Amino acid sequence: MTTEQGTDGQVVWELNSMTGGKILKGEEQATMLLHYRFDDSNYEKLYTKMKCVGIEKIGEEVCYKVIFTPRQADPFTAYFSKASGLMMKTVILLPEQSGQIKVESFMSDYRQVGGILYPYQVFERVMNMDIYSTVESLKHNVEMSEDRFEPPVDIKKLLEPTKEKDQQREETEQASPISQPKQ
Predict the structure, then answer these.
(1) Cα–Cα distance between 52 and 48 in angstroms, integer?
(2) Of the candidates 5, 23, 53, 116, which lies 20 to 30 Å from 13 by C-alpha distance?
(3) Would you say domain 3-140 falls under CATH 3.30.70.270?
(4) For each of the chain's 183 residues, which pLDDT tens digit applies?
């Protein structure tokens, strides 16, 4: 199974090899935008509350357990190494049409790029699947063409109004007493 997610700054989307494409809206959109940020330096604008609620071991690391309460999404938990301050784990409940899905992410192999430490390995446990991700290279301030952020063709199709949808909407509006002007 492959999943691709992205945004062009306006549309947030997901393309899944099993379920197809969908446009994310509401809480799903807010959650994706929050968790895929590159810069959390404006944390006071992102979260209403951040609270350290204890200390737990993640593998061999003793970690602070911190609950983050975002302004526009459900709270999530992050674990930060007491020794290094690096994020070692997150637990997120992702909103889906059928409910919430628990995602546990474990970060490791931190490397410095441009003075910033990034995890080059992430292991995720989602439902009954284990997903391993390895970053091969990471660069800052790379030139990219504008079309790099355009949604894939399958997502663009979802954004295009079809003649059938337009016709159905017109028929509904004509049949609805709400849309009829009063005489």
Answers:
(1) 14
(2) 116
(3) no
(4) 677 888 887 788 888 888 888 898 888 888 888 777 766 677 788 889 999 999 999 999 999 999 999 888 889 999 999 999 999 999 998 877 778 889 999 999 999 999 999 999 999 999 888 999 999 999 989 998 888 888 888 888 888 875 555 566 666 666 554 444 444
Cα-trace Rg, the chain = 21
Determine the Cα–Cα distance for residues 34 and 93; give it in Å rounded to an integer. Answer: 13
Residue 123 structure tokens: 């292991």
Supply the pTM of this predicted model.
0.73
| Backbone torsions φ then ψ of 136, nearest 5 degrees | -85, -40
Instruction: Give the position of tokens 């509350």.
Output: 49
